[in-house]
């Protein structure tokens, strides 16, 4: 799974490929596309691309600082509020400069981040980089960038395609990131009453969790026996986990199946599959 150093490092070329694909796509857009609404409420396509461009710079700065052993906020900020203000200023500057500058800003920040990622060694992955949620191991940032790229690429296209799909470039890697993402959700959101063993399946990939009181133990593979199993196709499992799909609609369509203790299965779904 993605928490293994080799898996984390293996995702770095996927970040490069998806970034390059998006740059190529943006350069082919007509002017009118930049003002089209995105899936994210209140965002246009330009907002989403500017967010990704500023995110690439953000990631490059904090990962570089973290690997040196001195985690720092980006853009010279000293507080989370200053960070948010600096990032918003960067976003606004990109949008105000127009589509050509926005494309180049995304391409430039993606290239800088890629250079940082490709310089990482296995020993760097356990070092911590600053994030508003706290210090996060550098290895996890690779998956976080994959999520950003995959989710916002879909967000930009979803309102305008009859059936929007996640990029095939990034989808397999996103499935590999899900166990870590689900573990984070459980640690952050678990309030009790979910004791049991759980298996999750996305196509042929399976992982699991054991919950006791508020302690969560992750399993890299499907447990030998579980009380509840959630299974879905890879596309549905990722979209559900990123808050981009409706749980009840997926159950009704058969794209998401709950086997075993359905009450606990639905409780687990409520933790893992919260709406955007």
**Given the C-alpha coordinates, what overall shape results?**
globular
Separate helix tally: 10
Which regions have little confidence, pLDDT < 50, spanning 5+ residues? none
Measured between the Cα atoms of the first and last residue, the distance is: 25 Å
Structural class by sheet pairing and helices: alpha+beta
CATH domain class name of the largest domain: Mainly Alpha
- Please estimate the helix content: 40-55%
Mean pLDDT: 96
Number of domains: 2
**Sequence of strands across the biggest β-sheet:** 5-4-3-6-7
Short recap of the structure:
The chain is of the alpha+beta class and 276 residues long.
Could you list some keywords that capture this structure?
Four Helix Bundle (Hemerythrin (Met), subunit A); 54% helix; 12% strand; 7 strands; 2 domains; single chain; 5-stranded mixed β-sheet; 10 helices; alpha+beta; 276 residues; globular; Nonspecific Lipid-transfer Protein, Chain A
């Amino acid at each position: 799974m993605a928490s293994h150093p080799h898996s984390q490092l293996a995702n770095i070329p996927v970040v490069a490929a998806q970034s390059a694909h998006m740059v190529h796509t943006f350069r082919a857009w007509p002017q009118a596309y930049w003002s089209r609404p995105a899936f994210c409420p209140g965002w246009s396509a330009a907002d989403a691309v500017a967010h990704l461009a500023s995110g690439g710079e953000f990631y490059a700065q904090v990962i570089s600082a973290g690997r040196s052993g001195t985690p720092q906020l980006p853009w010279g900020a000293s507080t989370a509020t200053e960070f948010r203000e600096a990032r918003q200023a960067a976003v606004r500057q990109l949008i105000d400069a127009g589509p050509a500058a926005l494309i180049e800003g995304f391409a430039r920040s993606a290239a800088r981040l890629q250079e940082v990622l490709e310089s990482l060694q296995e020993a760097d992955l356990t070092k911590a980089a600053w994030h508003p949620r706290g210090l996060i191991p550098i290895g996890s940032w690779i998956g976080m960038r994959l999520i950003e790229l995959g989710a916002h690429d879909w967000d930009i296209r979803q309102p305008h395609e009859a059936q929007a799909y996640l990029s095939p470039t990034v989808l397999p890697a996103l499935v590999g990131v899900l166990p870590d993402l689900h573990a984070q959700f459980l640690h952050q959101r678990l309030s009790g009453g979910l004791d049991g063993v759980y298996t999750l399946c996305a196509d042929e990939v399976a992982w699991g969790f054991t919950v006791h009181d508020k302690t969560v133990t992750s399993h890299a593979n499907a447990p030998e026996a579980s009380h509840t199993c959630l299974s879905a196709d890879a596309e549905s499992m990722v979209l559900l986990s990123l808050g981009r799909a409706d749980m009840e609609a997926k159950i009704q369509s058969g794209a998401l199946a709950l086997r075993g203790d359905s009450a606990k299965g639905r409780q687990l779904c409520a933790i893992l599959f919260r709406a955007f």
